[in-house]
Amino acid sequence: xxxxxxxxxxxxxxxxxxxxxxxxxxxxxxxxxxxxxxxxxxxxxxxxxxxxxxxxxxxxxxxxxxxxxxxxxxxxxxxxxxxxxxxxxxxxxxxxxxxxxxxxxxxxxxxxxxxxxxxxxxxxxxxxxxxxxxxxxxxxxxxxxxxxxxxxxxxxxxxxxxxxxxxxxxxxxxxxxxxxxxxxxxxxxxxxxxxxxxxxxxxxxxxxxxxxxxxxxxxxxxxxxxxxxxxxxxxxxxxxxxxxxxxxxxxxxxxxxxxxxxxxxxxxxxxxxxxxxxxxxxxxxxxxxxxxxxxxxxxxxxxxxxxxxxxxxxxxxxxxxxxxxxxxxxxxxxxxx
Length: 337
Ligand code: KG4
Ligand code: ZN
Known about the structure:
Elements: E1 2-7, E2 12-19, E3 23-31, H1 33-37, H2 44-65, E4 73-79, H3 83-100, E5 104-108, H4 109-115, E6 128-133, E7 138-145, E8 148-154, H5 160-170, H6 177-185, H7 210-220, H8 227-256, E9 260-264, H9 271-283, E10 287-289, H10 301-312
Parallel strand pairs: 1-4, 4-5, 6-9, 9-10
Antiparallel strand pairs: 1-2, 2-3, 6-7, 7-8
Helix pairs in contact: 2-3, 4-10, 5-6, 5-7, 5-8, 6-8, 8-9
Bound molecules: 5'-O-[(R)-(carboxyoxy)(hydroxy)phosphoryl]adenosine and zinc ion.
């Protein structure tokens, strides 16, 4: 089976073709970063309008790269995300599926992130613990198979990506803040600022990152933000977030007695997190798996992985065009169940 996949849940338009036997045949992405930059964040209506213009050319491009052969199904991100943006992908996917007389399936964006590491040459085995850290979610999940997800812990307030983005804003960095803050942290001194490691001192697998914003606000208030000071604060923020994510991930491995950790979602592109987790997880005799950096952040290849698994099992949608801004991961069903 070969599937075409579309991603349009936020500010990235993407398309990919994945073949059951030959693997990933093509994947392309258009980032809207430049479009939203002057507003300091994603403007939903602008995002939707841009997806409408970008998606079809991206589809043409990946189909041509994949050799122009027909596809047997179409997967698209149906949620969670910006509803207008999601609907542009849903409408295109369903229309193409109708025209080509193939099944279409709406995929859960976070299931895409969870399954992205399966695209790598050395994919993680099941069962494993997944740390899913994106712009909107921070979750620890026990993954016993595709569609078999048990939530172990989540953030009570801001997601890790949000914490990166909001503190970056306080430091006067532009959108998207996470990668810029991470880069700045590289030249800062560890320990110059000791921000709280939220919830790390308490039992359980919950996170809370909203206090970090306040701590950073206090650190910058009434001070002249010199480049050196900004770098030290950025270092302090990154260290606090990374320490918290590592502490809770190790605790999740311990509590589930599992030896495999998978880290995905936009924040998993963070190199400090990757390196420090590799050491910490290795020290307890376990292994950590990541998607390649370009599939850590939003992309269509990961939607193709989730879509292929489910379309192959016979799942498909009706002809109605729909999407869901909110969609609990726990409501997904096991594949082939
Ligand atoms: O998964 P993703 O691309 O989109 C969502 O589904 O939300 O995640 C985006 C998030 C943003 O908060 C962004 O700042 C963060 O991932 N991010 C990073 C890095 N790259 C992306 N955070 C820290 N360090 C990075 N290198
Ligand atoms: Zn995402």
